[in-house]
Design goal:
Length: about 425
């Protein structure tokens, strides 16, 4: 699919008068339309709810947009739970799917009534001892082995640190029931960034069949099944996006085939999508500030891997558009690089792009999820601002850029950095 930015050169120039590059910018209209498509696709399920994976884009303004579209939140840590609490989510609209969880986080999750999704059998006793067993509780399943769709290996759950085994999860529900739990959920996340309409339906079938088995063997009726994240997006132009409408329809087919005949036709379907909800609706905007002609042709930009880590850590492809040159021939081969003293700090390697001039705006696509949020401060680099392109076309800042003062704040106790702004 052709990749087009949601923002024009004209708009970028206008923004430049107020907000310097680099920045992440999000497209409110795109976010809302996509959330509506998801909710529509699963509207056949009475209890359906998307719990947006906060870690993908932990910004209160973004969460509020999704909240208005009916989404809850999936938190993975104390600070994410705090954010959800401050934004006045009901406990039932907060999922707490964490692993290797510290006791204080369980205590806090219980306090705000979040639904706890336990990652291990031993966490049942751990939770009992630190916070008590709540009425509603969920367990995370890991079937081990490899996860296949048809004959394609999608991912390797046998190697993943998450979740309970088949036998543990059955014992887990028995134990939770004995300890007084009343409402039970099941969760599983078996493959990441899948670009196929088959992922959710295949996962759903596994979980639905397990729910039937749990009913028989543990005497526990599962109330909600959380398909978690993993529905992906096409980062490269050669891929076609997932069709959420087809995905919803196929999950319904499996639901009708497996759950309904087993008397489990009331099960609510939950999702915890992050990437699918936000990635395409965010851009990292950066300016070309250097060109270097050595053994290769380099374009140096004012963003770096501290603003977007995925290319550096996964070798991930992010499409780049040179704003205003959308129709120019891609007849120059560049490495597009940031300033970190790390040779992996490259947004693109041997990428064919139009001729880039100094001052050109480069739009790096699909940074709306796992973009800003994975940022860090290596080399003393500072996190950028986050902007929101609103539905009416105006732009507002939804997080300011870090300043040197922020960077020095955690060792400010000596007083010698007090005058830094
Ligand atoms: C990261 C994560 C998600 C979101 O994953 P995406 O790939 O962004 O959809 C959902 N649930 C859990 C438990 C996660 O760790």
């Amino acid at each position: 699919m052709e990749k087009k930015p949601f923002i024009t050169l004209e708009k970028l120039k206008e923004i430049d008068k107020t907000y310097p590059t680099p920045y992440h910018i999000y497209d409110e209209k795109g976010i809302r339309e996509n959330a509506r498509r998801l909710n529509e696709a699963f509207s056949w399920n009475k209890g359906f709810k998307e719990y947006f994976a906060v870690k993908a884009t932990p910004n209160p303004y973004i969460l509020n947009i999704l909240k208005e579209e009916g989404c809850g939140v999936d938190c993975s840590s104390l600070t994410e739970l705090m954010m959800a609490d401050k934004l006045n989510y009901d406990g039932t609209d907060i999922m707490f799917s964490s692993n290797d969880t510290p006791a204080e986080e369980f205590v806090y999750a219980r306090k705000i009534n979040a639904t706890i999704n336990l990652d291990d059998f031993t966490h049942i006793d751990f939770l009992k001892d630190c916070a008590g067993i709540p009425e509603t509780i969920s367990l995370r399943y890991n079937p081990g082995g490899v996860f296949k769709i048809s004959n394609n290996i999608m991912d390797n759950p046998g190697d993943a640190k998450y979740g309970l085994t088949h036998d543990q999860i059955i014992e887990g529900y028995k134990k939770l029931k004995e300890l007084g739990a009343k409402k039970f959920g099941m969760h599983s996340f078996l493959a990441s960034n899948t670009v196929t309409n088959e992922y959710y339906p295949t996962l759903a079938k596994t979980l639905f069949e397990l729910a039937v088995e749990i009913k028989e063997k543990a005497g526990v009726e599962i109330s909600f099944i959380n398909l978690s994240g993993g529905v992906g997006i096409p980062y490269t132009p050669d891929k076609e996006p997932n069709d959420i409408k087809i995905i919803g329809k196929k999950v319904k087919e499996v639901y009708d085939e497996v759950l309904v005949p087993a008397g489990l036709g009331e099960v609510s379907i939950f999702t915890e999508l992050g990437r699918f909800m936000l990635a395409p609706y965010g851009h990292l905007v950066t300016k070309a500030i250097h060109e270097k002609h050595t053994h290769k042709e380099y374009i140096g930009v004012d963003a770096c891997a501290a603003n977007l880590m995925r290319p550096a850590i996964y070798g991930a492809y992010h499409h780049i558009t040179v704003a205003g040159k959308e129709d120019a021939p891609c007849d120059h081969k560049y490495d597009v690089v940031g300033s970190l003293c790390e040779n992996c700090d490259k947004f693109a390697i041997d990428r064919m792009l139009p001729k880039i001039d100094m001052g050109d705006f480069l739009v790096i696509h699909d940074t709306g999820a796992h973009g800003f949020s994975m940022g860090y401060n290596y080399n003393g680099r500072l996190r950028s601002a986050e902007l929101l392109l609103k539905e009416d076309g105006s732009v507002s800042m939804i997080r300011r850029a870090e300043t040197p003062k922020d960077y020095f704040a955690t060792f400010d106790f000596t007083g010698i950095f007090d005058d830094i702004k």
